[in-house]
Hints:
Blueprint: E1 2-6, H1 17-27, H2 33-49, H3 54-61, H4 63-67, H5 70-83, H6 91-102, E2 106-114, H7 115-125, E3 129-138, E4 141-147, H8 154-166, E5 174-179, H9 185-188, E6 193-197, H10 201-210, E7 214-215
Parallel strand pairs: 1-2, 1-5, 2-3, 5-6, 6-7
Antiparallel strand pairs: 3-4
Amino acid sequence: MQLAIFDLDNTLIGGDSDYAWGEFLVQREHVDSERYREANDRFYRDYQRGDLDIFAYLEFALEPLAQLSRGQLGNLQREFMEEVISEIWLPRAEELIGRHRREGHHIMIITATNRFVVEPIAAQLGVDTLLATEPEEVEGRFTGRVVGEPCFQGGKVVRLQQWLAHNPGYSAAEKWFYSDSINDLPLLQQVDHPVAVDPDARLRAEAEARGWPVISLRDVD
């Protein structure tokens, strides 16, 4: 039994779905445009530097889910997939997943982005398991709060360990992990086959120093 684990944003898709969702809400005027865009940009810069305050970010990012009805959210979710995610789709990512699937590997996405945003993307990619940051729901409505450990930095290691505890057949499995971000260094260090995918500068330096493969899913033949 083997496990192929993938980061999502800027790894399997050619952009950041969390940041893009914020921009989408601004464009649709469901948030205070100036305030929200400034904060969305600032948090994304923090993420890129590797020093994001994940709880402050989630308080900001999950607030719109609590303010909109499930009907509104469902419509926005579909439009986001059709208008935004379709534009950053990477056929080579699907091919890579397909190669692992043909080898009989269990396919997992592990992402800091919240489940509401990424679940349709994971479904379209046909993965077996999605581990994402979990927004709290009470009586069918989002509360704006997070449940459990955010799936970010060392939290990805914690969430994977929790999943393995409930799926012990994979505990000793050979594991691959593909990521673009220095934020994922804790998990990359834990797997048998760490792979840097179109990495940021800091992860590229780490990968080269450690002898990890560096690949691109965006190159054109």
